[in-house]
Write a structure and sequence with these properties.
- By secondary structure, the chain is mostly helical.
- The protein contains 13 helices and no strands.
- The longest helix is centred in the last third of the chain and has 34 residues.
- The two termini are 24 Å apart.
Length: 295
C-alpha cells in the first residue's frame, strides 16, 4: 500500500493491450480456478450466503446488496492475490474489503446504485415507463399467476422496451467503465475515489477491445451456453424426476458457480495485466494479506 493516497489519476500508469488479451484474462483466471476448484467454490457459496442474509434486512437489504458489491469484490481480489503467493482461497478473504479502505469502497457502491437507477430510469424516455412499471410493481394483486407471467413476457417482448433497455445500457456505460477497475485501484494502490474512477475510465477506454472480447466470452458462458444446455436437457429429459433431476440441477449449479468464480478472478488478472504488467510477485506481507500462511 502506498504511503499516501493517490489523488491524481495521471500518477497511475497503465498498459494498452490488443483485443485478444481479453480472452487471455479469462484463460489465466480459469487456470487459477482449476488449481483450487473446491476453495473457490466454497468462497462463492459463502458470498451467496452473505447476499441471502443481506436480503433479509427490511427495506435496506436490497440497497445493501448493491452498495456492498465493491467491498465484497475486494474479497475476491484478495483471494486471487493470495493464491498467486501460495495461500489457498478461503471464505475469510471475502471480508477483506472491510479492512482495506472501506470508506473509499462504499462511495463506489453508491455510484453503482445511482448508475443502476439511471439505466432503468432513462428507459422511460423510450418505452413510456413500461419497464419501470413492471419493476416497481411486478405482481399486481388483481392479476393471477398466469396473468403476471404473461405481463412479464409481453413487456420484455415489446420492441420499445428492448430498445429502451439498450438505451439505458448505453447511458450507463461511462460509469460502468469508470467502476471497472476502481475497487482494485482503491485497495491495491490506495487511490482516492476520484483518482480511481478516472484511472479506471482512462484504462478501460484504452483497452476497449480486450474488454469487449471479455464481455462477449462471458456472455457466451453465462447466458447463451446455459440457455442452450437448458433447452437441450428439457427436450431430452422431459420426464426426469427424482435423483436424475437433482443431479442435473446440482451439476448446473456447480457450473454456474464455477463461471462466477472465474469472472471474479478475472477482475484481479485483468487489473494486474493492465496496471502492473511487468511487476513480479510481491511478498505475502502486502496490504491484502489476510492471515494465511505460506504453503
Amino acid at each position: 500500500m502506498l504511503d499516501a493516497p493517490v489523488d491524481d489519476a495521471r500518477e497511475i500508469p497503465f498498459t494498452r493491450h490488443v483485443g485478444r488479451r481479453g480472452i487471455d484474462w479469462l484463460r489465466a483466471s480459469y487456470a487459477l480456478f482449476r488449481r483450487a476448484r473446491l476453495p473457490w467454490l466454497v468462497l462463492v457459496l459463502a458470498y451467496y450466503f452473505v447476499l441471502l442474509a443481506l436480503q433479509w434486512i427490511p427495506i435496506a437489504g436490497g440497497l445493501a446488496l448493491v452498495i456492498m458489491k465493491p467491498v465484497f469484490s475486494v474479497g475476491f481480489l484478495a483471494a486471487a492475490w493470495n493464491q498467486e503467493r501460495g495461500v489457498v482461497p478461503s471464505p475469510r478473504h471475502l471480508f477483506q474489503g472491510f479492512r482495506s479502505n472501506l470508506w473509499a469502497l462504499l462511495p463506489l457502491g453508491v455510484l453503482i446504485l445511482l448508475n443502476l437507477v439511471l439505466a432503468v430510469g432513462v428507459t422511460a424516455l423510450i418505452d413510456g415507463g413500461r419497464l419501470v412499471g413492471l419493476l416497481v410493481n411486478p405482481s399486481p394483486p388483481e392479476l393471477d399467476a398466469d396473468a403476471v407471467t404473461r405481463r412479464v413476457s409481453e413487456t420484455f417482448a415489446d420492441p420499445r422496451v428492448q430498445f429502451g433497455m439498450l438505451f439505458g445500457a448505453v447511458c450507463a456505460l461511462p460509469l460502468i467503465l469508470a467502476l471497472w477497475w476502481a475497487p482494485a485501484l482503491v485497495v491495491f494502490q490506495d487511490a482516492g475515489v476520484r483518482a480511481a474512477l478516472r484511472a479506471s475510465l482512462r484504462a478501460s477506454l484504452a483497452n476497449w477491445r480486450p474488454i469487449l472480447r471479455w464481455c462477449l466470452v462471458v456472455f457466451l458462458f453465462t447466458t447463451l451456453l446455459p440457455s442452450m444446455l437448458g433447452e437441450l436437457l428439457f427436450h431430452m429429459l422431459p420426464e426426469s424426476q427424482g435423483i436424475v433431476a437433482y443431479l442435473i440441477f446440482g451439476l448446473f449449479t456447480v457450473y454456474l458457480w464455477s463461471v462466477v468464480a472465474v469472472i471474479q478472478i478475472s477482475d484481479y488478472v485483468s487489473y494486474r495485466d493492465v496496471f502492473h504488467v511487468d511487476e513480479t510477485l510481491a511478498p505475502i506481507e502486502h496490504n491484502v494479506r489476510t492471515g494465511g500462511e505460506r504453503r
